[in-house]
Design brief:
Blueprint: H1 3-17, E1 21-28, E2 34-41, H2 48-65, E3 72-77, H3 88-93
């Protein structure tokens, strides 16, 4: 199982049990500068306090389960106006909206 999928399986239930939508995550391994960014959402918006609350819960789970062996920084954030889309359902939700698309590899 890919690291992103493993982390999603571990963290999504934690976020959702707290009443937030698990929007997605980005894990960027890079030695001591590794970054785990978790995006949360809620219909009435996300505050800094929400991010801090979720960060504490996620940190506790990550400390116990230890899925990331190297040092990393955890960041919990709202997806914001320029929100990344992670799932087909999210893409469908934004059908007929103007989006900016970035590809990992060149295409045509």
């Amino acid at each position: 199982m890919a690291k992103d999928a493993q982390l999603k399986e571990l963290l999504a239930p934690v976020v959702e049990s707290m009443g937030f939508t698990f929007w997605g995550l980005e894990f960027m391994p890079n030695g001591k500068r590794s970054m785990l960014r978790v995006f949360i959402d809620k219909p009435d918006g996300i505050t800094v306090d929400h991010c801090a609350e979720v960060s504490r819960q996620i940190s506790a789970v990550l400390d116990v389960e230890d899925p990331i062996t190297q040092e990393y920084t955890l960041e919990v954030s709202s997806p914001g106006m320029d929100r990344p889309l992670f799932t087909l359902e999210q893409f469908k939700q934004y059908a007929n909206h103007i989006i900016e698309l970035r590809l990992r590899m060149p295409f045509d």
